[in-house]
Amino acid sequence: MINYEDFMKALKELTERAKDGAVVLVEGRRDVEALKGLGVEGKILPVSSVSRAKLVESVEGDVIILTDWDEKGERLKREIFEILLSNGVTADTSIRKKIFSAVNVNEVEDLVKVYIKLHTHPRSL
Known about the structure:
Elements: H1 4-19, E1 23-26, H2 29-37, E2 44-46, H3 52-58, E3 63-65, H4 71-86, E4 91-92, H5 94-102, H6 111-120
Helix pairs in contact: 1-5
């Protein structure tokens, strides 16, 4: 079951914070493209293609971790969170929880499909 209102509220929060300068950390290139397809603008970094040292250099201020909602994504979220925290950067993981708690997919790249389905067939959900 998809909670349309919660999903749209979390997506709006993500979009607004990214527009205001938050750095959004995702797993890979397809996740970057998916977020852009959802209207998220700003700095979206795929952590799979960046060394951890470079990652720390690339972020400051508002940081949002949006890894997949699976075992690999959870491990990566914890790893990135700890690395950033040990370097004085606190990352937000609450949007990740809000988004994935509202939908029945586990991957960032699948959020576009959910969004399209919500807007073309809202009654089928």
